[in-house]
Amino acid sequence: MRVIAITTDPVRLSFLRALLADARIETVVLDAHISAVEGGIGAFPRRLAVATEDEARARAVLAEAGEAEA
């Protein structure tokens, strides 16, 4: 698994997942449970990961949508 995005914004996370799902790339949200425990204050970011073999294609999809990580 490769992390391709880190965010505290649940709306952005959902958008990124939708972009990748449209490209038929499966995603996994890491740290989702700690984010729930924190009470929604946004202190702990969630990481979006894809399979290693999908990383280049996933980064290309996000870049095309203007959502590339710095």
From TrEMBL:
This is DUF2007 domain-containing protein. Residues 1-66 form the DUF2007 domain. It comes from Neoroseomonas alkaliterrae.
